[in-house]
């Protein structure tokens, strides 16, 4: 099974890609592998420590369904990483492999030349985009998510829509309502999930027996 390749760097936003990782894991049984120029621990903008699992040299496109670039609170460290931009430039000419970037993440693509002639969006603001020479201002489309060929970009305020667009770019069927927030208009039955026959057998024969054993073990520690 292919996996999601996720770029991580100091001050990257974990929040912006959490919905995507959740959707791929629980809807398609696809896990995420973190990439960086080294395996040195990085700290997200939320303060979560992440140790990259692989370096760019270990990336093999055929093992992954997409590559994801989150935005971040501070980009200085990442922009100083020559290995990162060397790696991103290796995608030039790619037309089929999905590459997604959210919030400030599209700046990595702009500065690598991967957005040349592509429609895109970022969260840098119109004043910045109109003045920064690294951005092709005439190609910006201010919308929650913008898809142009294999490139998917999104505003930081649209992590759920970004996740759905990436799932579709990877060839998966995904409803617009996926991961939609719960409505205030609900009833208790909405949360009383019922399993089908096969899942119920698994519950009775595997899941519940394991939980019972663990419960007795933990309970015994109190006595």
UniProtKB/TrEMBL annotation:
Pfam families: DJ-1_PfpI. GO terms for cellular component: cytoplasm. InterPro entries: Class_I_gatase-like, DJ-1/PfpI, Prot/Nucl_acid_deglycase. Residues 2-166 form the DJ-1/PfpI domain. This is DJ-1/PfpI family protein. It comes from Amedibacillus dolichus.
